[in-house]
Amino acid sequence: MEPLGVSERLIHRTKFIVASSLEAPAILFSLLIFVFFITNRIHLQKLQHQALLVLLIVNFIQLSINMPMVIHFFRLGRISPETSTYCKLWMYVESTLDCASASIVAIMSIQRHTLVFHFITLRIRFNKYIYYYLPLLLGITYPMIFYLATVVFYPCDDTQWNFTLNMCGDKTCYLSNDQILATFDWIVNTGLPVVVIIIGNVALIVRVIRQKLRRQQSVSWVKQRRMTLQLLSISCLYLIAWLPSIISGLMQQIVPSESVYGIQEDYISDLTYLISLLLPWLCIGLVPDFKKWLLKQIRRIKRPSNTIGIGTMT
């Protein structure tokens, strides 16, 4: 294995510092949000918060399982341990969680139309399970089954693993051995969720503005703006992270370029890690009453120490 150059070591060191400094606060905020929902069950009665909680749980798994492997790679500048089992594990975990996370946001982008404009439809229990809970369940189980078949049980050539690249390289197993399967994966599991997120959010903005201009009382912008802005904020984070990767991937398919591949490998492909690292920060302002609850807990922790201090002085 050739040693890393100066520029490559600098890139890895910078990524390591950024990722490791953001991971701990992201985990802490995720846990605080979970505690908030557990102790304030009334917020979970709203369907939009249930979908957000599912997304945060998937994101927390990314933070606690996938990101440590990523940070470990950034720190060393290579894969360790250099085994096929470790590479398959990393590939399965990251691919499954990335697809599930993006799929949930795409599903939320569609469901938010029903929540804003046709909420009465979901008051029927059968409709709620079929049109709301079932899509979320499929958004999680489908990636698990797909990548179990294409990564874990797929016969890979152990010589294809590149222990100097993130996730052991992007031209391994079915990605290089089965062009049809690789194309399906890229279009359906990567490109389609992003397209759905864009169309769903643009359509939602147009519908909300049209309703507001018509001054129809059936849909109040003041009442529904938090639900709309919540989705738009999360979607913007996903688009910022995924669009550069998709665009550069299309460029590589049309006009292959070593320079573009180098930029994609060194910078663009790692933008997706910002989703799991920044989503909990974003949710601090998106979860209703969370800031008030957090400040209340901080005051409650400080209060005993102040009381002891006063008693001691007396």
Largest sheet: none
Order of helices and strands, N to C?
A: HHHHHHHHHH
Helix count from the secondary structure assignment: 10
Q: How would you classify the helix and strand content by structural class?
A: mainly alpha
How would you describe this structure to a colleague?
There is one protein chain. The protein has 314 residues and is an all-alpha fold. It has helices at residues 6-39, 47-76, 84-117, 125-152, 174-177, 179-214, 221-254, 258-266, 273-284, 290-313. Helix content is 78%, strand content 0%. It is globular, with a radius of gyration of 22 Å. Mean pLDDT is 86; it is low at 306-314. 26% of the residues are buried.
Annotate the secondary structure layout.
Blueprint lengths: L5 H34 L7 H30 L7 H34 L7 H28 L21 H4 L1 H36 L6 H34 L3 H9 L6 H12 L5 H24 L1
Helix pairs in contact: 1-2, 1-9, 2-3, 2-9, 3-4, 3-6, 3-7, 6-7, 7-9
Nutshell version of this structure?
This protein has 314 residues and is mostly helical. 78% of the residues lie in helices and 0% in strands.
Kindly list the characteristics that best describe this protein.
single chain, 10 helices, disordered C terminus, 314 residues
